[in-house]
Write a structure and sequence with these properties.
28% strand
Length: 214
């Protein structure tokens, strides 16, 4: 039977008046919003030979570097947020990198080709050295609000550069919760960066974090 406009309107009105069904609150800690990244050297914003001279001593590599196009390193990372935004879970697999050469592993905030500030020190959150964190080429850690990097101290006469990405451009508030981290992931401005002895400044490989594909 073909529905008339009046009948369709009546059905829609009846459905709209049904009481909302609240979900089990415990599902907030067991259901997830999922993001992922494919890490590659091609995503790095520059070569190690392009490090500013003033930063070579403090942030320069301690091993010979390899051009981005010649590196064999690759990786895949997943970032899962609980729906209640109390926890986030990171799982990463890498290939073509000796774990003994890894010196840092971070989530940064910034668009492609930009060296953005650190939002999460992943090895620090895992409470292990970067080398031990990547045993067998795999890394995993659970994150909470305490793991979001937030700079409060003033150094000298000028404020230190903020290491927490702003929760929104145009506002001075730094990201400091799992909720703000998920918000930045939704905006597509988070990326993984793996740093090695040979590629310490720009990084060995980088992977921008986007909603996971089904």
């Amino acid at each position: 039977m073909r529905k008339t406009p009046a009948l369709a309107f009546a059905l829609a009105l009846a459905l709209s008046t049904l009481p909302a069904q609240a979900k089990d609150p415990s599902l907030g800690a067991t259901t997830f919003t999922v993001y992922e990244a494919w890490l590659s050297p091609a995503q790095e914003g520059g070569e190690e030979t392009e490090i500013p001279k003033a930063l070579e001593k403090s942030l320069g590599s301690t091993a010979p570097s390899v051009p981005r196009e010649s590196r064999k390193s690759r990786g895949h990372g997943q970032l899962r947020f609980t729906k209640d935004l109390t926890r986030a879970y990171v799982e990463v697999d890498i290939q073509g990198v000796n774990p003994a050469d890894i010196v840092m592993f971070h989530i940064h905030c910034g668009p492609p080709n930009v060296l953005g500030p650190i939002v999460v020190d992943l090895a620090g959150a895992a409470n292990a050295s970067p080398t031990k964190s990547f045993a067998n080429g795999k890394f995993s850690v659970e994150l909470s609000n305490k793991d979001i990097v937030f700079i409060k101290d003033m150094h000298g006469l000028k404020p230190a550069l903020p290491e927490g990405c702003p929760a929104e451009l145009g506002f001075p508030t730094q990201a400091k919760t799992i909720g703000s981290l998920e918000y930045l992931a939704r905006k597509g401005v988070l990326y993984f960066n793996l740093h090695t002895k040979a590629h310490t400044y720009y990084g060995e490989m980088r992977g921008h974090i986007y909603p996971a594909q089904p």
